[in-house]
Structure formats: C-alpha cells, structure tokens
Design brief:
The chain is of the alpha/beta class. About 45% of the residues lie in helices and about 15% in strands. The protein contains ten helices and seven strands. The chain has a seven-stranded parallel β-sheet with strand order 3-2-1-4-5-6-7, with helices on both faces. Helix 1 links the parallel strand 1 and strand 2. The N and C termini lie far apart (about 70 Å).
C-alpha cells in the first residue's frame, strides 16, 4: 500500500527537497504551502499557516495519513507575531487537526533548529506558547513576553522541540513524534538568517564544518524518521548540523584526525 505523507513548506528549501525525495521513493505526498509547489505531488494545498481557520479547513479535507512533516517556517527577519504564528501556532493547530487521520505506526516529524539553544525564555513560557489557538491569544502571549523577530525565531524552535517530545508521549503507543534540528542550510532564506543571526555567526558555523548543509541532507534525515525503518526512534530531537556541536566542544582541545601532535623536539631536514 502506498504511504501518504503531508509535507508543509513544500514549495521551497527543505520542504521541497523532502517532497521531491518522498515522491521519488513512491510516497503519495500532500504538499502544503502558500506558494505553488514546483514538483508533481499527489495533492497540493494552498494555505497560509498564519490563518488558523483556513488551516483547520485544510486539515478537514485530508483523509488518512501515514506521516506528517512540519517543515514550513519563517526566519527572524519577519515580525515576531508572524514567526510564532507560522513556526509554532499554525504548525501545532494543523498537526492537532490531522492527528485523528494519522494511521497506527505513523510519525510526526517537525523541523526545529539548533538555534533553539539560544532561547532565553523559561519552560513555562514555551508551554503556554504551545497552547495558543488564536491571534488574540498570541497577542496576549507576546504582550507578556515581548520579543524581536530574531529572538522569536529562537524561541519558536525551542518550543517545537519541547512540543514534539510531549507529543511523542501523548501518541504512545500508536504513533511517533520526533524533531530534527538543522544547522545553517543553503536555502533561499539563508540570507535572512545572515541578517537576523549575524553574518559572522553563520559564516563561522560554515567554516567550522567546511560548508553549510544542503536541503537534501536534512530532507534525507526527515524521510528516514518518517519511514517504518525508524519505527523505534521516538521522542528525540535529532541534530543535523554536520558535527558543528562536536567541533565547537572538542576541536579546540585536540588536533584534527590525520594531523600529528605537536613535537617538543626540534627536527631538521
């Protein structure tokens, strides 16, 4: 039987790469985006995730699914309300509406970010954000926790990681939920991240590991997690960042593999 997976953000970047890979693998893809999806998917749904009523209408039109891939997101160059509406509220509203249609053994894979570690808000603020259901509630939350767009991006991704873990516990034993946290990825919005996070920070991350990630590399990880091959992978956040954290932690303390330890003796040739 053909698997059916819904992919948000399927018009560009990681979402497009995932829709393409799944389609090539014989999966029936339901692509969700506010823009036209440039690959032949089984069904294309146009919706803006900031329109929560429209999101619920779209969900009501979907039948049984084997997986949900929450990839859509906006960078911190957008206003904080937009960042949180798309990255957290719209994503959660859509997922909650689709869960009754998720088949046993299915999976929810949500793209977060390693930027989640930059969040400065307490856990209770993230928990409350993950219960927001309307524009008015989001405005109230932002009044209590005012954020810039850049800080809202970091907070949105921390909220997604926490929400995904709670969702995994909630879905047991019928289905799975995991999050994927990429580092910088060479997508059309990389320039936005250079602006909102600082070009020096983004460039430094690429220099440490040799390059930025590719959309297909993050998509490959998400495709695996959506597949039956990952049936015992649940409730985790998977960093997909080329070894950036390991390099930052250990590279300064040890020479790269293949290099010699510094000698204390003078040699001549």
């Amino acid at each position: 039987m053909t698997r059916r997976i819904l992919v948000t953000g399927a018009a560009s970047g990681v979402g497009l790469a995932l829709a393409r890979q799944l389609t090539d693998d014989g999966v029936a893809v339901i692509g969700v985006d506010r823009a036209e999806i440039p690959v032949p998917v089984d069904r294309a749904l146009r919706v803006d995730l900031t329109d929560f009523a429209a999101v619920r209408e779209v969900a009501a039109s979907v039948t049984e699914l084997d997986g949900i891939a929450n990839v859509a997101g906006v960078p911190g160059t957008a206003p904080a309300a937009t960042v949180l509406a798309v990255n957290v509220v719209g994503t959660r509203v859509l997922t909650d509406a689709l869960l009754p249609r998720l088949a046993e053994g299915g999976a929810v894979v949500t793209v977060a970010s390693i930027a989640a570690h930059r969040n400065t808000l307490p856990a209770e603020a993230l928990d409350r954000l993950c219960t927001v259901d309307s524009d008015a509630e989001l405005a109230d939350w932002l009044a209590e926790y005012p954020l810039s767009g850049a800080a809202a991006y970091d907070t949105s991704k921390a909220a997604l990681v926490a929400w995904s873990a709670r969702l995994a516990a909630r879905l047991l034993p019928r289905a799975r939920a995991v999050s994927v946290s990429p580092g910088p990825v060479d997508t059309p919005i990389l320039a936005d991240f250079r602006e909102s996070m600082g070009a020096e920070s983004i460039d430094r991350a690429g220099a440490v590991v040799g390059r930025h990630g590719l959309p297909g590399e993050v998509a490959a990880a998400a495709a695996f997690l959506l597949s039956p091959a990952a049936s015992w992978v649940n409730g985790i956040d998977l960093p997909v960042e080329g070894g950036l954290a390991a390099a930052r932690t250990h590279l300064s303390a040890a020479p790269p593999v293949g290099t010699a330890e510094p000698s204390t003796e003078r040699t001549t040739r």
